[in-house]
Every structure is written in structure tokens, then in C-alpha cells.
């Protein structure tokens, strides 16, 4: 096995740091923009075979996000990226410690200058790419949709994501974006 088996996920493998993040989060009567910095570690996790026929290549990741103002961790996320070469499909599964799990599916493409793009999405209620959450979150802060766009080009990784919430009796587009640099190559 070598890293090229991971297809479009291969460029992710490593440790990334970025300090230009912006989170837009809901408050009871409005929203707040919160600057953040973060570390994401992506590790090669081998391959699996499902039902004797589907072959997935797997990257495991851990994302730790700190508020710039006080350096406190305010978001922690664990998940996998998976690549199905046969279907040319990219899959992201993630868990956050608010009792919310997402399974998002999508596609990959290459830009004219050779950067790799990953685009995945999920929706609450979908049998395929869905969102599962606790009874409390379902009734008070329900995640109804998730989409994530990631671009990786050698030593630069950037992402933007939208997490739609039903919270405080309104729909809220909770967004996050950041640009990270490969820190294990420095
Ligand atoms: C870089 C990524 C993310 C950051 C920095 C972040 C940060 C935040 C912040 C600051 C809040 C406001 C509540 C608080 O102060 O703790 C919040 C709320 C929330 N986030 Fe995120 N979030 C991120 C990604 C996600 C993702 C991927 C999901 C779900 C798939 C999610 C689901 C929620 C939910 C359900 C709430 C509502 C809880 C509440 O406001 O009481 N977030 N997030």
C-alpha cells in the first residue's frame, strides 16, 4: 500500500495548522462572528471491503479548534474521509461532542492548476447521506443540512462549510472557513 492508493485523499495526509478561521454561530437574538485557529491531523487508516465488493480507502482525522480571543477549545471533531475509486465517490463521516453525527457524500475534482477539491453534503432525513442527533438536539438545535467544500494544493488546505440549524425558532446558517498550512513540511 502506498499513499497514491488514497486517490484524491492522499494530499490530506499530515498535520495542518491555520489561524485565519471565522465561525458564524447563532445566539438567542442574533449571531456572532468568532475568529479561530486550529490544528487538523489526517492519518492514513488503510482500506476496508464492504459486502465483498466495495473497496474504500480511509483517512482518519481529528480537528481541534480554539477561539483566538482566549485560546479555549470551542470545537472538537473526529471523523473519517473515505474514497471509493470504483464509484469515484468521496465520503465524510464526522462526530461532534454535541451529540451530532453526519454522513456526507459527494464528488472530487481537480482544478486547472492541479489542486484537489472535495465536495460533500448531507441532509437530515436522507436515507443515504444523513444526520443523526440526540432527542435534545432534534428539538432544540437541530442540524438540518451540512455541506463542506475543501481544496488542497500541496502545502495549502482551505475549506468552507455550511451547517443549517433550526435553533431559537429560526433557521440559521452556521458557517466556518479557514486556510491551513501543512505544518509537518516546515
Ligand atoms: C470549525 C467548525 C465549527 C466551529 C468553530 C463551531 C463553533 C460553534 C459555536 C461557537 C457555536 C455557538 C455555541 C457555543 O458558543 O458553543 C456553535 C453552535 C452549534 N454548532 Fe458549531 N461549530 C463548528 C462546526 C459545526 C458542525 C460541523 C456542526 C454539525 C454538523 C455544528 C453544530 C452546531 C450546533 C448544532 C450548534 C448549536 C448549539 C448552540 O448554539 O447552543 N457545528 N458552533
Write up what this structure looks like:
With 186 residues, the protein is mainly beta. The chain has a single domain (3-182), classed as Lipocalin (Beta Barrel). It has one helix at residues 135-140, and strands at 14-26, 31-50, 54-67, 73-84, 89-96, 100-110, 116-123, 131-133, 141-153, 156-167, 170-182. Strands 1-2-3-4-5-6-7-9-10-11 form a 10-stranded antiparallel β-barrel. Strand 3 and strand 4 form a beta hairpin. It is globular. The structure holds protoporphyrin IX containing FE.
Record keyword descriptors for this entry:
single chain; 186 residues; mainly beta; Lipocalin; ten-stranded antiparallel barrel; 1 helix; 11 strands; 3% helix; globular; binds protoporphyrin IX containing FE
Short description:
This protein is mostly beta strands and 186 residues long. 3% of the residues lie in helices and 68% in strands.
Secondary structure layout:
Blueprint: E1 14-26, E2 31-50, E3 54-67, E4 73-84, E5 89-96, E6 100-110, E7 116-123, E8 131-133, H1 135-140, E9 141-153, E10 156-167, E11 170-182
Antiparallel strand pairs: 1-2, 1-11, 2-3, 3-4, 4-5, 5-6, 6-7, 6-8, 7-9, 9-10, 10-11
Bound molecules: protoporphyrin IX containing FE.
Residues 23, 25-26, 34, 36, 65, 74-75, 96, 98, 100, 102, 137, 141, 143, 146, 163, 165, 167, 174, 176 line the site of protoporphyrin IX containing FE.
Instruction: Determine the N-to-C terminus distance.
Output: 26 Å
Helix amount, in percent? under 10%
Number of strands: 11
Low-confidence regions: none
Assign the CATH topology.
Answer: Lipocalin
The largest beta-sheet arranges its strands as 1-2-3-4-5-6-7-9-10-11
Count of all domains: 1
Q: List the ligand species.
A: protoporphyrin IX containing FE
Indicate the overall shape.
globular
Strand content: over 45%
**Structural class estimated from helices and strands:** mainly beta
State the CATH superfamily name. Answer: Calycin beta-barrel core domain
Q: How would you characterize the largest beta sheet? A: 10 strands, antiparallel, barrel
The top-level CATH class is: Mainly Beta
Amino acid at each position: 500500500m502506498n499513499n497514491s492508493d488514497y486517490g484524491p485523499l492522499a494530499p490530506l495526509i499530515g498535520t495542518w495548522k491555520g489561524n485565519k478561521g471565522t465561525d458564524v454561530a447563532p445566539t438567542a437574538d442574533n449571531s456572532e462572528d468568532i475568529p479561530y485557529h486550529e490544528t487538523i491531523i489526517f492519518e492514513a487508516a488503510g482500506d476496508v471491503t464492504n459486502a465483498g465488493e466495495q473497496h474504500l480507502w480511509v483517512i482518519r482525522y481529528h480537528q481541534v479548534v480554539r477561539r483566538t480571543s482566549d485560546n479555549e477549545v470551542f470545537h472538537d471533531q473526529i471523523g473519517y474521509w473515505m474514497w471509493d475509486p470504483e464509484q469515484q465517490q468521496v465520503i465524510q463521516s464526522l462526530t461532534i461532542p454535541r451529540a451530532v453525527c453526519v454522513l456526507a457524500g459527494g464528488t472530487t475534482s481537480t482544478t486547472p492548476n492541479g489542486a484537489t477539491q472535495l465536495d460533500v453534503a448531507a441532509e437530515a432525513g436522507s436515507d443515504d447521506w444523513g444526520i443523526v442527533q440526540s432527542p435534545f438536539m432534534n428539538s432544540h438545535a437541530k442540524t438540518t443540512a451540512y455541506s463542506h467544500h475543501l481544496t488542497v494544493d500541496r502545502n495549502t488546505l482551505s475549506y468552507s462549510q455550511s451547517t443549517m440549524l433550526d435553533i431559537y425558532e429560526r433557521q440559521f446558517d452556521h458557517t466556518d472557513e479557514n486556510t491551513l498550512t501543512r505544518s509537518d513540511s516546515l
